[in-house]
Each structure stands twice: as C-alpha cells, then as structure tokens.
C-alpha cells in the first residue's frame, strides 16, 4: 500500500494546486489500487480527484461491473462516473476497445478540466508489451514500451505511476485496504496473445533463465526510450537545415541524408512522412526509400502510404499522390 501511494505521490508532485486529476478505473486490482492511492494522496497535494469507468459492453453483466467500480470509487471519496461505449472492430477487439477507452478518457478530461489522467499499467504490463514487440519483430519504437508520462490531449498528461511496480503489489494493496477487485475473464482467455505471454511465456522464461525477466524487459524499454530521446534531439537539430517545402509536399537533401548514420537517416525519413502525411512506414518501406539516397541507379518513384517518394537531382521529394481526373 505504501509503495502504491509513494508512486502516486511522485506522479502528482508538481501539478498545480487546485487542479483536477482523473483515474481510469476498470475495477481490476491495478486500477483499484491506483484509485485508492489517488484518493489518499490528491487532497494532500491540494488536488481534486475523480475516476472514469468505461463500460465496453463486451461481456454479460458489464453494466453491473461498471456500477460496482463507480460505487467503490465513491466510497474512496472520488467523484466517479461510468461511460458506455460502442466498440468497433477496426484493428481487432483489443485495439478497438483501447481506442474507445482512450477516447472516453480524453473527453472526460476535457469535461472535468483535468490536467492529468492516471492509468494503472504496471511493470508486468510493460514487460509483456516489450516481449510482444520483440516477438513481432517490431522496431525500437515498439520495444520502448509505454511511457511513464505522455500527452493524452493538449494540456492533459496521461500518467502511468505504477510502471515501476509489480502486479502482485497492487493486489497486496487491495487486500490491505479490504478492497475486492474485479477479475476480467478476458485476462485469462488464451485467445489473446498478451494472455499467453503473461500466463505461459514469461513464467517459462523465468523457470528456464532465472527470476528477474520482467524487470530486465522493463529496463530494456527504459534504455531504448533514452536512446530514442537522444535520437529525437539529434533529428530536431538536423532536420531544419536539410528539409524544404516542395510543391504538394516536402523535400530532403540527399547529401545530408547520406552523410548521416543509417539509424538517423531512417528516422528522418519516417519522421518526414509521419509529420507531413500522418502515415507510418514499415521497415521495408523505409529501406526502399533510403535506397534512393544510398543506392541510386535511376529508379522511379516509390508509392508509400499517403504519399510518393522520388529523387529529383540532389533532393529526395515526398509528395501527396495526384488524384485521378475523371
């Protein structure tokens, strides 16, 4: 209980006195322990605190589960609400539920004038995220896992105070406070890859390689995030000098790209496409564009998500595709 409260206290430090913070409360052990700690720590920091429970409607009795979470939050002294959403199917059920949930949290923060929303991801969640990214062959961006703090909306921080704590700590905190968490049956459904990682893969790694695997994966995420922040600073310093606006797009100096290490060159290419056309490139697509810089033999334009890349003299141009005329 003290560990959870200390983590929340550190997260709330520095927030303006009188501000409002919200907790994303599912009713599970992680979010329930977080809500209890926030209810305890927020008034001491001069903050108002509330909770938001999202009813995804994906299983029977979800309304009762949401109502129970609201009642527990109110008993803790939080201003609590529950919101029912319709979950679509884009990207699969997990991704669709996540998108719907964060949409509700964003709207609730706007309605409450909140400066931060706290969610209950733990070190175990971080380790699972990194291992899943590794298994899928994801890049360093995915292997960084979840950030301790990021932007949910302009002026609203999304905080994960419990990223340094194990799941067993949140369960112990609930037991110490005599709180009864809800166990989501989806968390033991082996149709989901994350559940298989949690219940089969990580225990097997611990048994075969020794304890501390989850902590090691979380440390890896933190180190990769530090590396990414350093790369981002280098890109910010570099990109203003090598990028120019072009007709219907943007262009980058080929000589400047060629002079940079491959890792930085690839990041610049991905950043240009993401910032100008709001699309993400796969590694294969990034490498194909990079060949226009490092292995130029007169090849033609490359069609990419939302744009087209081509080499024009000493510039690498990214332009929006031309719509066909009737």
UniProtKB/TrEMBL annotation:
This is tRNA(Ile)-lysidine synthase. It is found in: Cytoplasm. The keyword Isomerase does not apply. GO terms for molecular function: ATP binding; tRNA(Ile)-lysidine synthase activity. Its EC number is 6.3.4.19. One of its GO terms (cellular component) is cytoplasm. Belongs to the tRNA(Ile)-lysidine synthase family. PANTHER family: TRNA(ILE)-LYSIDINE SYNTHASE-RELATED. The keyword Cytoplasm applies. Signal peptide: none annotated. It holds the Pfam family TilS. The gene is tilS. HAMAP family: tRNA_Ile_lys_synt. Residues 214-241 form a coiled coil. SUPFAM superfamilies: Adenine nucleotide alpha hydrolases-like, MesJ substrate recognition domain-like. ATP binds at residues 26-31. Ligates lysine onto the cytidine present at position 34 of the AUA codon-specific tRNA(Ile) that contains the anticodon CAU, in an ATP-dependent manner. Cytidine is converted to lysidine, thus changing the amino acid specificity of the tRNA from methionine to isoleucine. Residues 21-199 form the tRNA(Ile)-lysidine/2-thiocytidine synthase N-terminal domain. CDD domains: TilS_N (cd01992). Its main location: cytoplasm. GO terms for biological process: tRNA modification. Residues 253-316 form the tRNA(Ile)-lysidine synthase substrate-binding domain. It comes from the Bacteria.
